[in-house]
Amino acid sequence: MTTLTELRAKFISGEYTPLQAVQTALDTIKEKNGEINAFLATYEDAIAEAETATKTYAEGAEVPKLLGMPIAVKNNILVKGKKATGASKILEDYTAVYDATIVQRLKAAGAIIVGATNMDEFAMGGSTENSAFGPTKNPLDTDRVPGGSSGGSAAAVAMGAVPASIGTDTGGSVRQPAAFCGLVGFKPTYGAVSRYGLMAMGSSLDQAGPLTNSVADAELLHEVMAGVDEMDATTIDVDTYPEVAVKDTYTFGVPRDFLKEGVDADVIEAFEKHIEELKSAGHEVVDIELPVFEKGLAAYYIVMPAEVSSNLARYDGIRYGFSAEGDNLLDVYEKSRAQGFGPEVKRRILLGTHVLSSGYYDAYYGKAQLVRKKMRAELDENFKKVDVILTPTTPTPAFKLGEQENPLAMYSQDIFTVPVNLTGVPALTFPMGTVKRDDKMLPIGVQYIAPHGGDARLFSVGKKIYDERL
Amino acid sequence: MNKDDISHLASLARIRLEENELEQFAGELPAIVEYVSAVNSMTDDTDVEPNPGVRPNVFRADEVTNQPEQFSADIIAEMPHADGRFLAVKKILHTED
């Protein structure tokens, strides 16, 4: 397990070079990807970039923050000149014509993108089993899923190929795979990071975030990617929200009722132990109630599919991507989308079309938007009393491939993560322990939720609680 | 929600579903729709206006920021059917020959 911080120290001292790091990354992928399937593509031009970075370090000049660091990027994020498939057949041969803003910023900071990672098709799923290019396996137990939808990005780090990767999080798609693979994962305040060049899924929910081995690394990558972007009108600046103070000790709120059902007993046990650790470190932990927030999943499965059905209308077989032969224009649309999309994508488009259709809009989408507002008000009220809200990241550890066949059961995996996206607050996950399944120890994560604009608070407390243990 | 409803939604969404898919989704979607209907009991009449978002209006100068031809060749290369610099599509109207 390597952190970016350690790599940087070694690159500066000359003990290890970017060329060695990138070569090791590509070799590890070659050796392990056949089994894990974390990567959909690797980039050989990374070697030339690594040679240049190695020379720059040898010259001893000031170097940008991420110079020579091998990074993997989820394949719904555009990297100019590289295939951007979204793990969908409909974009199997699509080459990105520009860099996403976050990719531009990572490159400008010297990061070397070594490959594109697997995912649930168009980021729809919680297991990476919905990829058109085969499932990704969890490197910690290959009978199990790595989580999703950023399962390839999580597995890429957990298999030791790269020290860090980038994913996207619409309802938990960075945090849940990070938890399943024993990593740190971060979902920024909505608007903190530009969505320009990300394949839109739920535009009011999507944020890109890092998957790393330490909280400090997540902070480093987030700081490089974050900031106002004129290409994304929803990006926020530092003054958008009132300042969220960084302190030495905090009051944590635990929504007790939220933990009553559907959470594995040993996950609760580890969570209670974590609370005790917080108390002995001088923090205060109090019980809170979030009756609307904890029912967010219902609103999520209206808002998200509604936005999905609108956003995915662009994949029509006409301007780019897969195009089926048809007799007329409508025929081309219907056949291209029928053959290009997988079952989960179709399911969500149909659901979204239903909740947006005339006569149903007010009862579903309209209501769901009101629920979001209510959830937000409830959070604001609670953040007057507590600094950070605490939940397990997932109700269970990684499940087995093929185990979750019922879509609704699969959706309930995200019960702790989706309310965060619906309200737009930031959340950090890191490992809080392990639980035993079939004689294997599997990691589970704890989720820290801060008020809007409180990203720095999460990094500061996360570094203290998690990194100092490493 | 029956197979006909699914078929109608599929045609609105421009996806041609096979018979087995219609059956599958007609079996799955009602439970999901029922689940999400919970939102109706989560608000009351006092909740009227949704949240406007934190940056409702964002403007920039009205000027061209791209260079001419900056992306053209790459974009045309991605078109499934191109005719020179034009995108070729199938006819839209049915005509009697």
Q: What can you see in these coordinates?
A:
The complex is a heterodimer of chains A (470) and B (97). The model of chain A has no long low-confidence stretch (mean pLDDT 96). Chain A is 38% helix and 14% strand. In chain A, strands 1-3-2-4-6-5-10-11-9-7-8 form an 11-stranded mixed beta sheet, with helices on both faces. Chain A has helices at 4-13, 18-36, 46-59, 101-108, 151-158, 175-180, 215-225, 265-280, 296-311, 329-340, 343-356, 362-382, 407-411, 418-423, 455-465; strands at residues 39-42, 70-74, 112-117, 164-169, 184-187, 207-212, 251-255, 284-288, 388-392, 427-437, 440-449. Chain A is an alpha/beta fold. In chain A, strand 10 (427-437) and strand 11 form a beta hairpin. In chain A, helix 9 (296-311) packs across helix 11 and helix 9 packs across helix 12. By secondary structure, chain B is mainly alpha-helical. Chain B has a domain at 3-41: Histone, subunit A, CATH 1.10.20. Chain B has helices at 3-12, 19-36, 72-77, and strands at 82-83, 86-87. Chain B has a two-stranded antiparallel sheet with strand order 1-2. In chain B, a hairpin with a 2-residue loop joins strand 1 (82-83) and strand 2 (86-87). Classes of the chains: A alpha/beta (470), B mainly alpha (97). Chains A and B meet through helix 9, helix 10, helix 11, helix 12 and helix 13 of A and helix 1, helix 2 and helix 3 of B.
- The CATH topology annotation of the domain at 3-41 in chain B reads as Histone, subunit A
Main β-sheet description of chain B: 2 strands, antiparallel
What structural class should be given to the helix and strand makeup of chain A?
A: alpha/beta
Rg over CA atoms of chain A:
21 Å
What is the helix fraction of residues of chain B, given as a range?
25-40%
Low-confidence stretches of chain A: none
What do the pLDDT scores of chain B average to? 89
- Give the amount of beta strand of chain A, in percent: 5-15%
Highest CATH level, the class of the domain at 3-41 in chain B: Mainly Alpha
Give the total of beta strands of chain A. Answer: 11
Helix and strand pattern of chain B:
HHHEE
Pair with the biggest interface: A-B, 66 and 52 residues
How do the strands of the widest beta sheet of chain B line up side by side?
Answer: 1-2
Overall mean pLDDT of chain A stands at: 96
Can you tell me the overall shape of chain A? globular
Counting DSSP H or I runs of 4 or more residues, the number of helices of chain A is 15
The N- to C-terminal Cα distance of chain A equals 10 Å
Order of helices and strands of chain A: HHEHEHEHEHEEHEHEHHHHEHHEEH
How is the largest sheet of chain A built, in terms of strand order? 1-3-2-4-6-5-10-11-9-7-8
